Amino acid sequence: MEIKKFTLQKDGNPPDTCEDASELREDTEAGLLRTAVADGATESFCSAYWAKLLVEAFCLGSFDNDDLDGSLLPLQEKWAEYIGGRELPWYAEEKARRGAFAALVGLTIEPGNSESAPEGANTWKAFALGDSCLFHYRDKTLLYAMPIKKASDFGNDPYLISSRQENNEDLAGRLVIDHGQCFSGDLFLLMTDAVSCWLLQQEEELAHPLEELLQFNDESSFAAWVEEKRKLRLESGRPVLKNDDVTVVCVKIGDRQ
Amino acid sequence: MPYTAEIKRTNPSCLIFLIDQSGSMADAYGDDSGISKANALADVLNKLIQNLVIKCSRSESVWDFYNIAVIGYGEKVGPAFAGTLAGQELVPISTVANNPARVEDRKKKTSDGAGGVIEQSVKFQVWVDPAARGGTPMAESFKQAKNMLASWIPSHADAFPPIIINITDGEAEKDPSNEAAELRSMSTLDGNVLLFNVHISSARSGKVEYPDSEDGLVDGYAKSLFRMSSILPEYMRNMVAKENIPVSDNTRGFAFKADLAGVIRFLDIGTRPQNLAR
After folding, report:
1. ipTM computed for the complex
2. Which of B8, B9, B125 sits opposite A90 (nearest CB)?
3. Residue A257 pLDDT level (bands cut at 50, 70, 90)
4. pLDDT, averaged across chain A
5. Distance of alpha carbon A219 from alpha carbon A221, whole angstroms
6. How far is B260 from chain A (nearest CA, A)?
7. How close A50 comes to chain B (CA, Å)?
8. What is the per-residue burial (b if ≥16 Cβ within 10 Å, else e) of A11-47?
9. Out of A42, A236, A237, closest to residue B278 by CB
10. Residue B278's pLDDT is what?
11. In the predicted model, what is the mean pLDDT of residues A37-51?
12. Tell me, what's the pLDDT at A115?
């Protein structure tokens, strides 16, 4: 597998304020890969830490079951422990009480093992809650996008996973999961909302966003591209790329060993 | 496009609240609570400031997305912050956050989850005290707001335009239309200063919210306040529409004989940012 990862904080903010998190774990012997991207909601408290807990748990396989609430419980306890005991100013206390929120998108690639699976097929499984997205490309064609499929569906109020369980109403009902087959040469992108929205807009205009995203070899060329996109304006006056933390994880499926 | 500037620490915006502190504000609001309009307004404003501070907080500090001023007009006209901020005009929100005049212990009733009610003790930060004495020198308050902005705007040319919300329960002693027009004519590169007026009343009927013409207004004073109010920018119009209130391109930031819930909604729509840097 070929894996690339790029991340950049919002314009005007120092790097340590980035609230996106990403993680990847590969078990080459088993041919298994798990990767996840999470986007901590800025207005919530300690959302960067919450985002980190979520991606790490995903990559350990903690969400490979039907009990989403149960899988979240140890993470929520860990977050609460991290917050507890700190003396906070009144406005931070109120925010801490409300909890942290984050979107999460995760991908698992495993060998295709059903007898009817074509030769060379792997199985992909996707998991998403919120507005961080996954895109599946083959030969530069977008085969599949989830959980959001249209640029106009990005809003300012996505449903997010909370570090306080009382805020997680019907999380299981909001979870989007899917699976399918993938082959050597297929590409998966896991990205946070601002760049996901940009990609879908480009696809809708029949442009070639994938080519643009594949050109980077280092963080500084990625940063320069993001900065340029943030400055450009659409006809409506809005920026081409919304000023927000940006994370792109790109996984290219290799040949099966 | 106007009213699209991003509000961020390097490009903050301004919120100015003009509050009627005339004698008639001592009258009860008329909602059976028995509390005076002045008390109700002070509570609403303090709660709004608490929420604005929380909105601007990031981790353990408050980011200066806004400068806030409160001008009271009644027996005298001037800055209405109490405590350590007394006498101060436009104050960065982080300074507001760290300097409430006092913190009160209030009781909040919440459901106990079993059909009963429990009382919880909550902290309530206070920056503005109720006051109700004297006449209604509204024009002078508009003039003071104008002077504040005349000093602030030149060094914040790219800012999201300042928003002024005037809350009154009665007629101004002197027609403030000229001063209102002068305020609305000020601008940043992102658009004109917005002046919104909400009239509060203990009357139980005759409420008007976000009209788009003076045709439906019977009261001459209501018509004049309507004319003094800015047309809502598109993003605020969308917020009003979401409340199932009919809107058009001419809808203004104006409410007449608003009840307490109406005031709260008015202030929320007037101060909720479209484009706060995340």
Report:
1. 0.87
2. B125
3. very low
4. 91
5. 6
6. 24
7. 13
8. bebeeeebbbbbbbebeeeebebbbbbbbbbbbbbbb
9. A42
10. 56
11. 91
12. 67
